[in-house]
Amino acid sequence: MNFSYLFCILVSLSWVNAATHTFNWTTGWTLANPDGVFERPVISCNGEFPWPDIRVQKGDRVLVYLTNGFNDTQTSMHFHGLFQNGNNQMDGVPLLTQCPIGPGQTFLYNFTVESNSGAYWYHSHTEAQYEDGMRGAFIIDDGENNENYPYEYDEEVVLSLSEWYHDNVATLLPQFLSIFNPTGAEPIPQNLIINDTRNLSWEVRPDTTYLLRIINLGGFVSQYFWIEDHEFDVVEVDGITVERNTTNMIYITSAQRYTVLLHTRNDTSRNYAIMQKFDDTMLDVIPDDLELNATSSLTYNTSAPLAEQSYVDSIDDFLDDFYLVPLSRDALLPEPDIRITLDVAMDNLVTGINYAFFNNITYVAPLVPALATVLSAGENATNPEIYGSNTHSFVLDEDDVVEIVLNNLDTGKHPFHLHGHVFQTIIRDRTYDDAIGEVPVPFNESDHAEYPQYPMLRDVLYVNPQSNFVIRFRADNPGVWFFHCHIEWHLAQGLAIVLVEDPLGIQANSSQELTASSQAVCNAINMPITGNAVGNSTDFFNLAGEPVQPNTIPTGFTAKGIVAMVFSCLAGVLGLITITIYGLMEQTHVEEDFIEDMMIDPATVLEEDDSSNSNTAEKSGAEPTVREY
Amino acid sequence: MSSAERVFNVGVFFVVFRECLEAVVVVSVLLSFLRQAIGSKDWALYKRLRLQVWIGVVAGFIICLGIGGGFIGAYYRYNNDIFGSAEDLWEGVFCMIATIMISMMGIPMLRMNKMQAKWRVKIARSLVEKPKSRRGYFNIGFLARRYVMFLLPFITVLREGLEAVVFVAGAGITTTGSRATAYPLPVFVGLVAGIFVGLLLYYGASRSSLQIFLIISTCILYLISAGLFSRGAWYFESYIFNKKSGGDASESGDGNGSYNIRKAVYHVNCCNPELDNGWDIFNALLGWQNTGYLSSMLCYNIYWLVLMIVLGLMMFEEKKGHLPFCEKLRLRELNPMYWIKNKKKNEITEEQKAELFRKLNNLEFDGEGNIKHDDENSSSNDKVVQSYENTAAKV
């Protein structure tokens, strides 16, 4: 067959060129001080911090032996943006594509980088762990020394951006998911860092074209990024090369990547500021001592002073990525076979904690990795029920065109990430500002902006406050894929759905079978690798014992409220009756009352009752009886 | 705050009404005394003394109006600076204080004739007592006596007025989001109502209809007071929650997360007295909150329970002359202030009281309106006065 012949050639070709990169990584803790202000425990790689940046070539094989060196926490690793075609279990999402790696266990991430090239990154996908430093850049060259890259440049540089906390996730997360954080206010970072430091000095040569890979490794805030008196050309976003677009500022959310061409000046007399700025609209409070700007130096001349902070007139003139055009010029996908409409909202449940919801469901992980359920469920795998009601799973058929309509009812910005794919961005509506009385505007199918002819492709897209976006992709990558907010705090609040893409296709491909390493990791923590969401492999529709979200808060009075109200009303009425009885009581003994008021011993009064009464009446002089004092 | 609460603070009204009533009682007792004692003998003197009384009333009223206005104005000017983030804590404290004050002053309203009798004696004593020595004629005490018909109502009105100022400030502060504009109308209406009831007293309206009027207003007063007590507890809870949540909850309106669900007995996502029009009236009158905390609900019920017990004891004592099960003990003796202030000193006997009134009836004023002390007139009077002086000396 032509196809298998072609396949053989491809395999043999890649065999010829491809190298294998093996990494033995053990997690642990060490102290580090990236922002130069505060030394804190960070997650280390083989005792070192920061984690290494990886550079491989398209077609290379990557082997990451990840050993959990923590004492009491699980871990995992996700290679952000990689399609992992046929390798779903290498996607690194605990309880979806693998079992969490328990302490002392090693998981082998073994995959070939077939269809991605450009700027990617890797990070733990366990409980906001990467905010503690467990992340790094993952750069894929297209050909040897990136020779197939469609743009010319002289040198390549990675600039990783991030926010930085002085507290550990282990401290921040319980505070965040607490009854005493009822509005779900995200922890406020202490600083913005760049390449795991601050006040970086990047020494550049004049009149040189740099391929600058800007990656936001952060888990929360978006950043504005600009370089004083320099323009740059955006040529790639999220691993997708795009038609050259010149700008002087980009807006980069958590997990997004922008690759730009920066041509340096001829003049080496002075240095220029590389600016990062918080998107402070994402912060619930802005502490007085928080520096919203971070300044680094584009250093032409090391003997000249480092650059001073640069100001701009407006931060609203950043590049709108929606209008970028991929070099591939993929046409707009046709009308969808399946449309998933998701309403984003944040609310409290009966625990008092603030959760994040897609259509009133907050993601709760199953007891068995969803991929294991797919592989063991046979024909039942096409029924979303078996993946659990609170995992919010959707089953996609092979090669369906999938449209996700996302309506943001929340007043915040959210960067959403889809695993295993890049998607076409069809609609992204403007901000609807509740400060000026605007209400959330959902996508309106019959009244919307025109769809772009060649939509932009990427894997992280932000939605504006109270706004909406529409994305499309083809379900051509069998696997269990997460779609979630890439603000780690919001993921912890459950802002995620599961897309079970072509489950029968997964079962049909032998490369998708759980590897020995994968099974060993499951066994080590006694997690079943067959059965539905609760590990029931005899009756896939029996979900007894399934983890579910807490109850919603009852609106209005509950039984105990009614009891309290009845008792209070009763107490009030009885009290008023008592007052009335007291008020109506015959005051026949006013004189006695008065005597008592004056605190006269009743005995004296009784003794002299007759005489004193008559004396008073007649107003005649009587021998005064002076009491002993 | 709704428009109603912006111009009419219910708590303020009742406080003013009650204090005004007491002042009116004093003035009416004084006036009826003057009419009886002097009106029949010397009409011109009576008219002059009556003028003194009214001058005293007006002067006292104006002064405490000035002080009260200044006090409240200053409070609202510096409001934010005083409380800052601890506003809920302060509101809770003020609620509790207001509860205690209203509770203490409410019940005596139902014993109006007791109040009248008390004041009759107090006035009698101040009129009859004379300087202890010759030198006394040149001191302030003597001058005071010279204008006793001015000073008595002046001081009474001033005292009741200042009391009202303290109450009013307290009651006003306890109303969330209240402002200075919430004062003039209830103060005015309270004054009018107090004077109206005072007139009824003076012209001897039917006791039963007056009593019913007083019962109704006392009932409302205690509804407010129970609500304040409950609100006090509520504010404490709210303060604790806001403190732990970093003052974050207050921004979230009345929906989920605006309150501590673990301590809530009920919550409705509406009817928030601080945000929704109309419900603040329920808040002011009945202590309504759209979140019922366990503590606030308990406080409400306990308040009524304690009130019923106390009233029951008072009724028992009025009937039997002592508390149940303890024949020697009376309610007032349970009050520590009774012992601290040593009120026994001020006691007078029934005979002394009789003597007082007899002397009052014989009281004479000289042509300038000064009281003529007639201790030379009767030997029996001497003894009374001596006994007073003995008492005074021992004091």
UniProtKB/TrEMBL annotation, chain A:
Its cofactor is Cu cation. The keyword Glycoprotein applies. GO terms for molecular function: copper ion binding; ferroxidase activity. It comes from the Eukaryota. Its main location: membrane. It holds the Pfam family Cu-oxidase. It is a single-pass membrane protein. Residues 29-143, 155-301, 364-503 form the Plastocyanin-like domain. The keyword rRNA-binding does not apply. GO terms for biological process: cellular response to iron ion starvation; reductive iron assimilation. Residues 1-18 form the signal peptide. Residues 606-629 are annotated as: Disordered. Keywords: Cell membrane, Copper, Glycoprotein, Ion transport, Iron, Iron transport, Membrane, Metal-binding, Oxidoreductase, Repeat, Signal, Transmembrane, Transmembrane helix, Transport. One of its GO terms (cellular component) is high-affinity iron permease complex. It is found in: Cell membrane. InterPro entries: Cu-oxidase-like_N, Cu-oxidase_2nd, Cu-oxidase_C, Cu-oxidase_fam, Cu_oxidase_CS, Cu_oxidase_Cu_BS, Cupredoxin, CuRO_2_Fet3-like. The chain crosses the membrane at residues 562-585. Belongs to the multicopper oxidase family. This is Ferroxidase. It comes from Zygotorulaspora mrakii.
UniProtKB/TrEMBL annotation, chain B:
It is found in: Membrane. Its main location: membrane. Pfam families: FTR1. The chain crosses the membrane at residues 12-33, 53-77, 89-110, 147-173, 185-205, 212-236, 293-316. It comes from the Eukaryota. It is a multi-pass membrane protein. PANTHER family: IRON TRANSPORTER FTH1 (PTHR31632), PLASMA MEMBRANE IRON PERMEASE (PTHR31632:SF2). NCBIfam families: EfeU/Ftr1 family ferrous iron transporter subunit. This is FTR1 family protein. The lineage of its organism: Eukaryota, Fungi, Dikarya, Ascomycota, Saccharomycotina.
